[in-house]
UniProtKB/TrEMBL annotation:
This is Arrestin-like N-terminal domain-containing protein. InterPro entries: Arrestin-like_C (IPR014752).
Length: 450
């Protein structure tokens, strides 16, 4: 069975969590330290590592004493079943015996689990059900003719993965998050999806269950339009178009005192220009331009200003647990300066009669590893966001000095796993995401069943 994939929902910065505060707590345990429990399961065939038994036949098949969950032949390299955007989870359930069976149900559930620890033990936890689909495989009430048949029977099923989180509030559509794990110094969060078959038996007979984690690795894409960049020495360079660039003022931060060694910096304006949509695919180099202008620029301070410029792509991993926010920042890449040009009036409009100087610092910034980095978020629970941070600390050595004027600005951007290459590739899983290396892990949840 196949499905024509549709264009993905856009990942806007408004859909990512609000990173306002953080709290310093202790380090949380890693993902691998968690174990799976299923409160309904009393008879499940498991392997030595605690996960469901994988029948060594090249098929994604999981069995217990009375049930078999078969998801067909293995297609992708990861050990767990893998699905991309708009993926169809197809397979069949084999009921080996109907003796004392009341009903058999199939459940697909997606969970965001976040937690914090104290003294090495998880304390506060929160969870969010982002997906829950149920299907009745067999019922004694509707198929009584099979209840007396002791031989096995197979029942096909299919689940279609949705684009968005179920039960979104405030009329905000949140894209269904990928299977992922993030960790800060004080907390962890995991997004995981489980496919489970439950057999309910009459009387005092034990129930039976078999389950497996599945990997949801959707491609997120952006239509990245490369902006026009004038060549050096062009006689008639084309004016930069606002439709190609997003320009923001870089505000000045006051440091103790006034700049003694570099006078006149109070009359210097700083602006950052990035390709205007602020949605970039991972694995590419995006151009940037930092414009210095004003009557405060001089031959004496321009070298110190340009030497003190720093530009970084920052990845922020954030968890929310019972109102406590914890985040961890990681530098993905550092901007490389390509050239510095003075008095290029074509870069930014200048007023008539304005004799102030202007310096344009151009460079490029890498957006991580192709297919491995992407923005995602479930509001109020967990998320990964990115920002371009520019700092300007005037110094001959390029380092911040007390008393120097400092400019700083962070521009929120969205990183997608891939650049749009046509609809045909949209359903292919993003196999370079970190979660693709997961094995049969499961997670203990709060409050019993999921």
């Amino acid at each position: 069975m196949s499905s024509i994939p549709s264009l993905p929902p856009s990942y806007s910065t408004e859909e990512l969590p609000d990173y306002c505060t953080s709290l310093s707590l202790e380090r949380s345990p890693a993902y691998t330290e968690l174990t799976l429990t299923s409160t309904r399961t009393s008879s499940t065939s498991v392997s030595s590592d605690g996960g469901p038994k994988l029948i060594p036949s090249g098929r994604l098949s999981y069995s217990s004493k009375r049930l078999t969950l078969d998801l067909g032949p293995r297609i992708w390299a990861p050990l767990l079943p893998v699905y991309g955007r708009n993926g169809l989870i197809e397979g069949q359930v084999e009921i080996k015996s109907f003796k004392h069976v009341n009903r058999v149900e199939l459940t697909l559930v997606g969970v965001v689990l976040s937690y914090m620890v104290s003294n090495g033990n998880p304390t506060l936890r929160s969870k969010k059900i982002v997906l829950c689909e149920k299907s009745m495989i067999w019922s004694a009430k509707t198929d009584a003719s099979s209840s007396g048949d002791q031989s096995g029977s197979t029942f096909p099923f299919v689940f279609a993965l949705p684009d968005h989180v179920q039960g979104s509030q405030d009329h905000i559509s949140t894209p269904l998050p990928p299977s992922a794990s993030i960790q800060t110094r004080t907390s962890s969060a995991h997004v995981f999806y489980l496919l489970r078959v439950d057999m309910y038996r009459n009387g005092i007979h034990f129930h039976d269950s078999v389950q497996t984690e599945i990997l949801y690795l959707p491609r997120t894409v952006s239509n990245y339009e490369r902006p026009y960049i004038p060549l050096p020495g062009s006689e008639k360079p084309r004016r930069i178009c606002d439709a190609e660039w997003r320009t923001a003022e870089v505000p000045r931060k006051s440091i103790c005192g006034s700049p003694r060694r570099l006078p006149g910096l109070g009359n210097v304006d700083v602006h950052l220009s990035l390709p205007h949509k602020l949605h970039y695919p991972s694995g590419c180099a995006i151009p940037f331009a930092v414009t210095l202008s004003g009557q405060g620029l001089s031959c004496a301070n321009i070298p110190q200003l340009t030497a003190g410029l720093g530009l970084k792509l920052i990845k922020t991993s954030t968890t929310f647990v019972k109102g406590i926010i914890s985040k961890q920042e990681t530098v993905v890449s550092t901007g490389k300066i390509c050239r510095i040009d003075e008095d290029e009036r074509h870069w930014r409009d200048s007023k008539s009669g304005d004799n102030s100087r202007q310096v344009v610092i151009r460079g490029c910034l890498e957006t991580g590893t192709k297919g491995k980095d992407q923005s995602w978020g479930v509001r109020g629970h967990a998320g990964v966001s990115y920002q371009v941070r520019v700092t300007l600390a005037p110094s001959a050595e390029g380092n911040h000095q007390d008393g120097d004027a400092v400019w700083e600005h962070s521009a929120a951007v969205v990183i997608t796993s891939h650049e749009f290459e046509g609809r045909a590739a949209m359903g292919t899983p993003a196999l370079s995401l970190a979660a693709s290396s997961r094995t049969s892990m499961t997670i203990t949840l709060l409050n019993g069943d999921i």
